[in-house]
Predict the structure.
Amino acid sequence: MIPAAFDYERVDTVDAAIAALRADEGAKLLAGGHSLLPQMKLRFVMPTKLIDIGRLHDLSYVHEDGGGVAIGALTRYHDLEASETLRQLAPIVASVAGQVGDPQVRHMGTIGGSVAHADPAGDMPSVLLALGATFVATGPGGMREIAAADMFPGLFQSALAGDEVLTEIRVPKTPGGWSYQKFTRRAQDWAVVGVAAVRMNGSANVSLTNMGLTPMRAAGVEEALAGGADPATAAERADEGTAPPSDSFGSDEYRRALAKVLVRRALEEALA
Amino acid sequence: MATTETFIGQPVLRKEDPELLTGHASYIDNWTMPGMLWMALARPPYVHATIDGIDTTEAASMPGVVGVYTATDFDLAPLPFVWPITEEIKVPVHYPLASDKVRFNGDAVAVVLAETREQALDAAEAVAVTATELPAVIDIEEAAKDEVIVHDDLGTNVVVHWSHGGGGDQSVFDSAPVIVQERYVQPRLIPNAIETRGCLAYGVPPVDEWTLVTATQIPHIAKVTLAGTTGIDEHKLRVIAPDVGGGFGSKLNVYAEEALALALARRLRRPVKWIEGRRENYVATTHGRGVLHDCTLAGTEDGTILGMKFVELADMGAYYQLLTPGIPELGGWVYMGPYDPKAYWFEFKGVVTNTTPTDAYRGAGRPEATYVIERLVDSFARRIGKDPADIRRMNLHPPHEDAQTSIMGLNVDSANYEPLLDKALGLVEYDKLRAEQRDRRERGDRTQLGIGLSTYIEMCGLAPSNILGALRYAAGGWDGATIECLPSGHVIVKTGTSPHGQSHETAWAQIVADGLGVSPDEITVLHGDTHSTPLGMDTYGSRSVAVGGVALHFAVEKIKAKARTIAAHELEVAEDDLEWADGAFRVKGAPDTAKTIPELAVSAWHAHALPAEVEPHLNATAVYDPPNFTWPAGAHVCVVEVDTETGATEIVRYVAVDDCGTIINPMIVEGQVHGGVAQGVAEALYEEAMYDESGNLTTSTMTQYLIPSATEIPAMTTDHSQETPSTTNPLGVKGIGEAGTIAAPPAVVNAVIDAVSHLGVTAIEKPASPERVWRAIQEAKGDGRAGASPGSEGGTS
Ligand SMILES: Cc1cc2nc3c(=O)[nH]c(=O)nc-3n(C[C@H](O)[C@H](O)[C@H](O)COP(=O)(O)OP(=O)(O)OC[C@H]3O[C@@H](n4cnc5c(N)ncnc54)[C@H](O)[C@@H]3O)c2cc1C
């Protein structure tokens, strides 16, 4: 319950963070610390150094940006939840931010940290996947954009390179028709299963939380919807292509059944 | 200052709170000493393995490390086990450090001392153990097959068999018109006190005197037994329980770390401190429950319970801790419940497994018993198509006016069950709920309503020493109290109970305040230190008020007898001419001629003019050995909504009606019920220790082991308007510390089953997780039971 020894440096610019990452292969960025520090306490990870980007305040913002909304990677859940811009233009992001963990977690945790951590049980990755977000990474060679479909290649793995900092997340305007069904045992828990549904182009994008090694789109459901199926019928395909875990919160079999119920409920709400 | 106010029965604010709420409490981790070393234990990552070698070289060379020790470095006796419940019991030898075999996840093989806690923990991880892994046995039924033996020298895992035997006509279990047979599984629970364990040992080496400050419920028992384990003379050992952040039974124990810290402090002549980590706590501190019951109820078609029979298998864990096999035995005295069966049977077998030892957990035996009785009664009601409230009412034992021997052999001191049930049903608006349930069932709503009952009797006030002797428990069940009236008017109370959240400082002050006519503000209650409060048997089993509180009453009586003699002398009247009224001794017929206790304390102190036969100083000690247990009772009703698609349960209403005899402080009683019910809800819906196939605890942090938060705990309606005084003691008090955890689990589980019983579900095990509920519904559907005559089971009409 006590982390292994590590060095610590606080940086004031993204460039300094990148330089520090390049200088030490064992180093890790520290944002809100609410995924990293618990892992360090259990000694699942033992970084040689923490590079604290928590005070890069100019990466904490939400603003309208052409057809979408741009969100700074260091924006904390609490600020997402309170953002008028998000509430109006992409309300699912504001709402789900308010369902993460407990108030302490929401005042420290950042959207960028949640994405970089790429926890298949994380709420934000799955919501951003349903929204088809674009991720902006800044590295030694400058900025590059990563499409949502490419962002989460594996378990606790993001598409970011070791010397890249996630700096911005862009989501399309989705003011109407959405739902996030988060099934938890206790109010502050991660989702046993979560389902995000967002109405888009007359149909719906649907993604699943905690149904496999990565956050994932419910491809079978989306295909059924595109073929004109009603929500209840489409929802029956919710577990196609998934590989849910079995743990103290529920078995693989139960999660599959739960996914079907939650997808149906999400679609009923989003398409109502 | 003398006062004419009375305090018993008043919601006096807690004397303990200002310190606790302003951060001035003295938990063990707040203690520090010059020259102090930190202790950490090496617990190798094995479940069951033969130890081939322990290499401490690397650990010993690490920064800050002062020493690394294994079993052979100590000359310690085995850890105390004080309840060998039968003559034939097999007792595993349990040393503070394992040397031959690792037998469970938390078994320690070496101990490290270092300058800082972090250094000690790092070095403990570096202790290299080579071992040959053995298959592990976690499941009790598997263990009972003896295919894997935990203690080779015992030759079997079935280490104890205790049979209460039967009473009444046993043939009903074969021949009754209705026979309900069920098996109930109660998983292991992890007690989760908010403060983990910890201790600090230090001494005065030249005179070989040693003090152990430890987060314990039982400083007095710890002193006697640790003297035995460590070889320190009992009179040279002092044990202090500082502020203790909860125990729930897990600190009703004497642990290896306490013995090791003392031994090492003595060896190195330096203070030694140990603080348990939470993950460590999950494997190294005792667990609770872990039992399996095969149950039979014999009854008639009209709903009369003729007999109840229980055969239990109880998980002991890898060793016995202080009381281990005594816990199911303790439950063995309440298997009649609040009912009146004319026949019973109870027996259990204790089985060792490769798991953390079990021991008392809030309720200790009585929750296990109450759960199976109450599940069984509901099953009986469902079987014969009767309302579970009606079945309970018709089978409740008639009121116990005076102590009356129950069919299980002990005397129930007083109880009156039916008004408790009626009260609970009225408060929850039972008939309305049943009507709403019917409507929802008819509509086929996604969310169904369930109503669960639990009527209980429990036994508190542990315990009459002669009964403990008959049960082969090594100690007595008495407790002591000393009262000193200082010349300043202040009163010092020294109690042998050792609170860790129970508010004794407040409640004890209320008892003494009424007895002596002084304000509780003028009373200081000392506890939890074997030097300043040497006479005691500590706090567990809802014993404190019914034993320690009553001892206080008798000490008050002694003070008053002495004070009366002095008052009569000073007022120049005969003692018989005095009466105790409005907080003073008053001359009959001339009430203004009076002496208060603070006045008499001054007289007794300066002793200038005492009657010849009276000793100076107004002080008294009483030691009270209860003639009987006390028997609280109650009725709880839980109302749940169950989502039939996901299996999720939400508690929408909870009513707790408890009769704990005379109430000293209703606010404290309510707090105890709230906490107990919360813990019972946790047991019913959330908590379960789980292991992987190799026997490693998988619910090893609070992320996986589900303790509900405030959000999951319902608002509760509590009622304590019925106070049936105990006939065991003159205060009429019974105890309320465990009622919530005893009553709540079956009320909640019965409610969940009730919510889906119309779908054909007849059983769901604890904890009734969404998945278990969902599975039960799926299985009922598969059986084609779904939709079969909805409303025919459990309805009022
Ligand atoms: C009690 C508790 C409950 C929780 N409940 C939930 C829940 O219900 N739902 C949920 O989704 N999550 C939950 N979380 C996790 C929470 O959302 C985390 O805060 C979040 O996942 C990580 O954000 P952070 O800013 O704290 O990241 P950190 O912990 O600081 O970092 C996480 C990882 O991301 C990297 N990183 C951080 N920022 C960047 C960046 N800008 N660029 C590149 N890499 C970066 C770090 O190096 C690290 O590897 C919970 C956490 C706790 C402690």
Observations:
- Chain B has three domains: 17-23+478-624, 31-134+195-245+251-284, 288-462+628-792.
- Confidence is low (pLDDT under 50) at residues 786-797 of chain B.
